[in-house]
Structure formats: C-alpha cells, structure tokens
C-alpha cells in the first residue's frame, strides 16, 4: 500500500508518496508524469514518520541549507537503466550542474559500453519520480540550454537560482519539445 501527503513549498504544492518506509515519489503540482510511477492510487496520510523527515529535509533545502539525498530512504520505481541514471543524479552536488552528455558517458562506463545516447538519459531524467531530492533540475544541455524539466523551465530556473548556480552561461531555448 502507498501513502501520500502534500507540502507547501516556495515553488508550489508538492505531493510526496511513500510505502511507509521509503519515499517513492515527490512531484510538483502540474508536473508531467505526476504520480506516473505509482502502481496504485496512494491513500492520503499525513502522520507517517518518513513524511515528517522528508518535510524537514524540504524545509532545510528551501531555507538555503544543503541537505543530502542520502539522508532519506529513497525507492523510486523504475527499471535498471532509470535507476542507474537516478543514482547519478543523486551525486550531482548542490549548486552545480551537469549535462545529459556527461551522464550518458557515466552510464556507458557503468554498463561497460563505449557510448550511450544522451536522449535515452534525457528520458530517464525526465521520468525521475522524486523531484528536487533526486536533483534532475541540475541537468542541462551541453550548450547550456535549460531544457527538459518535467516541472517546467520556470521552476527549474528558480531551483537553480535558489542553489546559487551561476546562470550567465545558461539559457532558456526559444523552441523545443522539452519546454
């Protein structure tokens, strides 16, 4: 059985989901694929200790501290490839960005391959079910394009600015499928 609660954040309402022991989802209101990895509709329940801990983590994050994703038991639902990508996302330091291409190279090495598609990585990043805590907002295009955030580009920009990321080399594309 799965459970959910909400958290009012500076970027809008967040929905958290848990199996009681581990966090399986965190979605921004209006986000693409909201709840998409949930095998069943969660039951609303605010008094699960993990939700208190996750909300404390979010309070810490939104007040400018740098909480580590490893502070929470995470269990995003997805296949082996996506799990590998999400593991790499958790290693991106607060206030820094990486590219889809860099993640593709790391995944290729992890899988013993010489190359990996950045588009395949982009698909896994876009379907990350634990936004913010698994920091998919820290991934940008190789040319500095702020593309591919399921929560919306404006929220991606707000999260990166909140973390103090140097934004001068980054830009919002004028057109594209991931806006």
Describe this structure in words.
The longest helix has 14 residues, at about 50-60. It contains 5 helices and 6 strands. The protein has 2 domains: about 5-70, Double Stranded RNA Binding Domain; about 80-160, Winged helix-like DNA-binding domain superfamily/Winged helix DNA-binding domain (Arc Repressor Mutant, subunit A, Orthogonal Bundle), CATH 1.10.10.10. The protein has helices at about 50-60, 80-90, 100-110, 120-125, 155-160, and strands at about 5-10, 10-20, 25-30, 45, 100, 140. Helix 2 (about 80-90) crosses helix 3 and helix 3 (about 100-110) crosses helix 4 (about 120-125). The chain starts with a strand and ends in a 17-residue tail after the last helix. The chain has a 4-stranded mixed β-sheet with strand order 3-2-1-4, with helices on one face. The mean pLDDT is about 90. It has about 180 residues and is of the alpha/beta class.
Helix content: 25-40%
What are the secondary-structure elements, in order, as H or E?
EEEEHHEHHEH
CATH architecture name of the largest domain? Orthogonal Bundle
Profile the largest sheet: 4 strands, mixed
User: Going by CATH, what is the homologous superfamily of the largest domain?
Assistant: Winged helix-like DNA-binding domain superfamily/Winged helix DNA-binding domain
How far is it from the N-terminal to the C-terminal residue, by CA? 34 Å
Give a count of the beta strands, DSSP E runs of length 2 or more. Answer: 6
Radius of gyration: 16 Å
Structural class computed from helices and strand pairing: alpha/beta
Principal-axis shape equals globular
Task: Provide the CATH topology of the largest domain.
Answer: Arc Repressor Mutant, subunit A
Largest sheet: spatial strand order? 3-2-1-4
Beta-strand percentage range? 5-15%
Query: Runs with pLDDT <50, length 5+?
Result: none
Q: Count up the domains.
A: 2
| Highest-level CATH class of the largest domain | Mainly Alpha
Number of H/I helices: 5
Tell me, rounded to a whole number, the average pLDDT: 92
